[in-house]
Amino acid sequence: xxxxxxxxxxDTQAAKPEAELIMGLKQTGIDxxxxxxxxxxYETKFREAGIPVLLNHPKKKFDWKFIHFLKEKVKDEKIxxxxxxxxxxxxxxxxxxxxxxxxxxxxxxxxxxIHWYDPTAYFKYxxxxxxxxxxxxDSINDLLKEQKFFTNTKAITINKGHNPSWYEGIDPLDLxxxxxxxxxxxxxxxxxxxxxxxxxxxxxxxxxxAEMPEVHLLLIGRDMNKGGLQKLIDESPQKQKIHLxxxxxxxxxxxxxxxxxxxxxxxxxATTKSVIEAMxxxxxxxxxxxxxxxxxxxxxxxxxxxxxxxxxxLADAIFFYYTHQELSHSHGAAAKKxxxxxxxxxxxxxxxxxxxxxMVKK
Length: 362
Prior knowledge:
Blueprint (H helix, E strand, L loop, with lengths): L1 E5 L5 H16 L3 E5 L6 H7 L4 E2 L9 H14 L3 E4 L2 H11 L5 E6 L23 E4 L2 H8 L9 E3 L27 E6 L8 H7 L9 E6 L8 H7 L6 E5 L4 H5 L4 E4 L9 H8 L3 E5 L15 E3 L4 H13 L1 H18 L2 H17 L1
């Protein structure tokens, strides 16, 4: 079985579960090769694992030279499966597959923005040439099945797995570099601040922190001061206790120094990686009750679940952990165990291999 993966592995931390899946598939005996961008540390790791790497990822959605290249590659090397992960890979891969016996599998990690009445959807997930779509969560699977003209059997849910060993030996970072005193109770939020992440509701919750003098909010990621967020920060009574780090490549070290992790998303999520990372580090999570978060934790056992768009509930959950710090520790330990049992990468590798085998048999 020959599988060609086209994806972006430049963001080392974000790409880790996917890259480890590809290397795990290789270890099971699948003949897999990768097309990606230059400047990725995974080039060396892939090659060391015996995976051929081509550094010619398409840079636009309709790259006819690349499409011709893929067609010839399928013919010359008898590729059985395309596994396509991003927009450029998906559109070019689908067009290259026309007229050829290669199976086309797409990955979808986001809930939303797929509509049967949108003509552009037929260049990607609703294209009839697609054989399977691997959904990160059931919420995506259900969204696809709601679309007219979509064959329900095309969608399958396979979670991106993690490995406990990735989170061992992580040294805590000294948070004083962000202006946080050593005796603080640190609440972290890690995201790129798009509207659906609900960061404004978390900032509004800081207006209710009066009875939590030692709580500091640490915002990790891009654009945490954009789209009106800076105004909310400036007007917050806790302004001096809100700290922005920007994008970081040492997020696990930062999480190792935090007491609680909060993600106030209002929709669009599907098994959010940042929450899984925090849970894997043993940090107690607070998440919202949106469809894509279902199954990530058990309320009041391995974290807390609150309604979306509700600053008061966010503040109450943070206050609960602040005043019951022994439970924040026990919930964090339970969260780590839950990820180890329910989201282990060995399961992802097994389910993905089974999918590939079923497609080749067909």
